[in-house]
Design a protein that fits this description.
heterodimer; A: mainly alpha; Cytochrome Bc1 Complex, Chain D, domain 2; 2 domains; two-stranded antiparallel ribbon; two-stranded antiparallel sheet; B: mainly alpha; 15 helices; 62% helix; disordered C terminus; binds protoporphyrin IX containing FE
Chain lengths: 254, 423
C-alpha cells in the first residue's frame, strides 16, 4: 500500500510542476502585495474606487471594458445616485424613435461601459496599428495576472543602447518582445485622487490593477466566504463519516 | 443476514405495492444492500463510486449552464462571461463544471490504474473492462468538445489543432475534416455541432456506466488479493460496510474538489481561454488540458503526422486490448514481483509523457517523448504478453478470509465476527 501512496503523492507533485512548468517566454514579474490574495483575501474598497478613477481618467481613452455595465459599480461601493451620474456623463445612441431616427441620449446604469472607439479598425488606426485590448478580463487573461499588469504599467524604460525600436513603439521590460504600441499611460501625479492619497506611479498602477482584478473576478469575496463554509461543513462531515465507518467496521475483522 | 428479503416482505405497504409490480426495491436491496462484497477492499475501491458522483455533478451543472449558454461564435464567449458575472451562482456552476472535468479525469485515472495493478481486467471481467475503456474514450471526446464551448483562444486553437489531425488520414482526410468542421475551418457551424454533441455524449456515458455496473454485479468485484471470494467468510454485505466507507471517501474527495473550486478556480486552466477566440492570432503555445498531455506527447513523438495520429489512437486501443495482452493467470500485482516493477515504471512513464506533452517539442523533450512512447507501447505489446510466460509468481493465499484473519482462526460468520484488529 505504501507503494501506492507514494505513487499518488508523486503524481500530485508531478502534476503541480507540470502545470507551472508549461512553456511561455515571459520573465516572471516581481510579486506584489495584493489584498485579494490568499484564502481570506478581500478587495480594498478605497483602492478599487481609486483604481476606477485611474481607468476612467486615463485608460478609458483607449481601452474598452465592454463586459461591464455601469450598475456593476455598486460592487465597488458606489451608490445608485453616484452610478447614475457616472453613466449620464457619457452619451450613447438611443433606440430608433417613432420616426426611425437614432438620437443620442445620456447613459443609463444598465448600459455597458462606453467604448472609446467605434470599432477595431478605428482603434488600431489611432494607436500605431495595435488594438488596445478590452480590459474586462485582462487580469484573468494573462499569465501571472495582477503581477504582470503591474509590471507592465511600471515597466516603461529607455531602450537599452543598441536596441532598434520599431517606429512609434515603446520599450517595456514586462511585455513579451519588449516593444509595445501603448505609450506609458501612468506617471507620478497623472491623476489627483479624490481621497487625498499621494498619486505616485506605483500607487496608481497598484490601484488600477486592483480595480481590473475586481473586474475580472467580481465574485472573489463571495467565493472565499462560501468556500470557507463549504469546507468547514465537509471537514466536519468527513470526521463524522470516519467515525461512523470505524464504528461499523469495528464489528468485523478486515 | 438481516437484510435478505423476498419482495412481499417489505413492511411499508406502498413499497410493497410497487415492488410486487416492479421489483425495483428488491433489486436495490440485492445490488446495494446485501450485495456480497469482498471484505478486504482498500481505499482505491472508492474511486468507482467517486467517478459516478462526478458524472452526476457534471450532468447537473452542465444542464444548468446550458440554460444560459449561447452556442454561437459571436456570442459564446460573452455568454460564458455573463454566466460567471451576472447569473446568480453562475460563477459557482462554471467553476464546478470546468474543474469538475479535471476531477473526473483524476478519479478515472486512479480507477484505471487501480484496475491495472490488481488485474481487474482479467477473466471473467473482460467485458466490464471494455465498458470502462469505452467510458474513458467517450469522456475524452466529451471533454474535448466541452473545452471548445467557451470559445476562448485555447478553445478555438485547441479545436483547430486536434481536428487538423484528421487531415493526415490518406485520401479521405480532407473530406472528413471538412465534414467535421461543417465548413473550411473551425467556425460557427463547428461550435453548433460541438455543443449538440457535448450535450448528448454524457448521456451516452451514463448508459455505458449502467452496462459497466451491470457487468460488475454479474462477476462481482475484484479485490486487492485478486482471488475470488470462496465463501461467506470472504465477503461483507455492501451496506453498511461499503456504503459508509464510500460516504467517507466521497466527503474527503469533495473537500479537495471544493478547495480547487473556491480557492484556485483558474489553476488548472489556461489564461488564454479568457481571451476571446481570434482566428487571426495564434497563441504562443497551444496546449491541451492536463488530462490529454500524455497522448499529446505520443502524438508529437514521431515526425510523421499520420503515424502520430495512429500512435495516439493506438495508445487508447492498448487499454481496450489489455485483457488479451496480459497472459498471466495471476491477477494482483502483489503476487507478481516483475509485473509490479513494470507497472510502477508504466505509471511513472505516463507522468513523464504528461510532462513532455506540456513542453515545446525541442531538445531533450523530443528524446524523452520518444523513450516514453516506446515504453508505453513496450509495456502493453511486449511486457504484458511475455511476463505471463516466465514470471515466477508468489503463492496465492487459500482465501480472502485466511489472508485477512490470519491462519485458520476464523470467526463463524462475517457479521457475527468479534472485534479484532482495526484499520
Ligand atoms: C462527462 C461529463 C462532462 C464533461 C467531462 C464536461 C466537460 C466540459 C469542459 C472541459 C468544459 C469547458 C469548461 C471551461 O473551461 O469553461 C465544458 C463546458 C460546458 N459544458 Fe460540459 N462536460 C460534461 C457534461 C456536460 C453536460 C451533460 C452538459 C449539458 C447538458 C454540459 C454543458 C456544458 C456547457 C453549456 C459548457 C460551456 C460553459 C462553460 O464553458 O463553462 N456539459 N464541459
Amino acid at each position: 500500500m505504501s507503494n501506492f501512496r507514494a505513487f499518488l503523492m508523486g503524481g500530485g507533485l508531478a502534476l503541480a510542476t507540470l502545470t507551472t512548468a508549461s512553456a511561455q517566454e515571459l520573465p516572471e514579474p516581481a510579486k506584489q502585495d495584493w489584498s485579494f490574495y490568499g484564502a481570506f483575501g478581500t478587495y480594498d474598497q478605497a483602492a478599487l474606487q481609486r483604481g476606477f478613477q485611474v481607468y476612467r481618467e486615463v485608460c478609458a481613452a483607449c481601452h474598452s471594458m465592454s463586459l461591464l455595465a455601469y450598475h456593476d459599480l455598486s460592487g465597488i461601493g458606489y451608490t445608485p445616485d453616484e452610478i447614475k451620474a457616472i453613466a449620464a456623463s457619457v452619451s450613447v445612441p438611443d433606440d430608433p424613435d417613432d420616426t426611425g431616427e437614432i438620437k443620442d441620449r445620456p447613459g443609463r446604469p444598465s448600459d455597458r461601459f462606453k467604448a472609446p472607439f467605434p470599432n477595431e479598425k478605428a482603434a488600431a488606426a489611432a494607436n500605431n496599428g495595435a488594438v488596445p485590448k478590452d480590459l474586462s478580463l485582462i487580469v484573468r487573461g494573462r499569465k501571472y495576472g495582477p503581477d504582470y499588469i503591474f509590471a507592465l504599467l511600471t515597466g516603461f524604460k529607455d531602450p537599452p543602447p543598441g536596441m532598434k525600436m520599431a517606429n512609434g513603439m515603446n520599450y517595456n521590460t514586462a511585455f513579451p518582445g519588449n516593444q509595445i504600441a501603448m505609450p506609458p499611460p501612468l506617471s507620478d501625479d497623472r491623476v489627483t485622487y479624490a481621497d487625498g492619497t499621494k498619486a505616485t506611479l506605483a500607487q496608481e498602477a497598484h490601484d488600477v490593477v486592483t480595480f481590473l482584478s475586481w473586474a475580472s473576478d467580481p465574485h472573489l469575496e463571495e467565493r472565499h466566504r462560501l468556500g470557507a463554509r463549504v469546507i468547514i461543513f465537509l471537514a466536519a462531515f468527513s470526521g463524522v463519516m470516519y467515525g461512523v465507518k470505524r464504528k461499523v467496521w469495528s464489528k468485523v475483522a478486515h | 443476514m438481516a437484510h435478505t428479503k423476498t419482495p412481499s416482505t417489505f413492511q411499508n405497504p406502498v413499497i410493497r405495492w410497487v415492488d410486487d409490480r416492479l421489483p425495483i426495491f428488491t433489486m436495490i436491496s440485492k445490488e446495494y444492500g446485501v450485495f456480497p462484497t469482498p471484505r478486504n477492499f482498500n481505499y482505491l475501491w472508492n474511486f468507482g463510486a467517486l467517478a459516478l458522483v462526478m458524472l452526476v455533478i457534471m450532468i447537473i451543472t452542465g444542464v444548468f449552464l446550458a440554460m444560459q449558454y449561447t452556442p454561437h461564435a459571436d456570442l459564446a464567449f460573452d455568454s460564458v462571461d455573463r454566466i460567471t458575472r451576472d447569473v446568480n451562482g453562475g460563477w459557482l456552476l462554471r467553476s464546478l463544471h470546468a474543474n469538475g472535468s479535471s476531477m473526473f479525469f483524476l478519479v478515472v485515472y486512479i480507477h484505471i490504474f487501480r484496475g491495472m495493478y490488481y488485474g481487474s481486467y482479467k477473466r471473467p471481467r473482460e467485458l466490464l473492462w471494455l465498458f470502462g475503456a469505452a467510458i474513458y474514450l467517450l469522456m475524452m471526446a466529451t471533454a474535448f468538445l466541452g473545452y471548445t464551448l467557451p470559445w476562448g483562444q485555447m478553445s478555438f486553437w485547441g479545436a483547430t489543432v486536434i481536428t487538423n489531425f484528421f487531415t493526415a488520414l490518406p485520401f479521405v482526410g480532407k473530406a472528413i475534416t471538412t465534414w467535421l468542421w461543417g465548413g473550411f475551418a473551425v467556425a460557427n457551424p463547428t461550435l453548433n455541432r460541438f455543443f449538440a454533441l457535448h450535450y448528448l455524449l454524457p448521456f451516452v456515458i451514463a448508459a455505458v456506466v449502467f452496462l459497466h455496473v451491470w457487468a460488475l454485479h454479474v462477476t462481482g468485484s475484484n479485490n486487492p488479493l485478486g482471488i475470488e471470494p470462496k465463501s461467506d467468510k470472504d465477503t461483507l454485505p455492501f451496506h453498511p460496510y461499503y456504503t459508509m466507507k464510500d460516504l467517507f471517501g466521497m466527503s474527503v474527495f469533495l473537500l479537495i474538489y471544493a478547495v480547487i473550486v473556491f480557492y484556485i478556480p483558474d489553476y488548472l486552466g489556461s489564461p488564454d481561454n479568457y481571451v476571446k477566440a481570434n482566428p487571426l492570432v495564434t497563441p504562443p503555445s497551444i496546449e491541451p488540458e492536463w488530462y490529454f498531455l500524455p497522448f499529446y506527447a505520443i502524438l508529437r513523438s514521431v515526425p510523421s503526422k499520420l503515424l502520430g495520429v495512429i500512435l495516439m489512437f493506438g495508445a487508447v486501443v492498448m487499454i481496450f486490448l489489455m485483457p488479451w495482452l496480459d497472459t498471466s493467470k495471476v491477477r494482483s500485482a502483489k503476487f507478481r514481483p516483475w509485473y509490479q516493477w513494470c507497472f510502477w515504471f508504466f505509471a511513472f512513464d505516463s507522468l513523464l509523457l504528461g510532462l513532455v506533452g506540456s513542453q515545446h517539442p525541442e531538445g531533450i523533450w523530443i528524446l524523452l517523448g520518444r523513450i516514453g512512447t516506446l515504453y508505453y507501447f513496450g509495456f502493453f505489446l511486449i511486457l504484458l504478453p511475455f511476463l505471463g510466460w516466465f514470471e515466477r509468481t508468489l503463492p496465492l493465499p487459500a482465501s480472502i478470509s485466511e489472508s485477512v484473519l490470519g491462519g485458520g482462526k476464523l470467526a463463524s460468520s462475517a457479521v457475527a465476527a468479534k472485534p479484532m484488529e482495526k484499520a
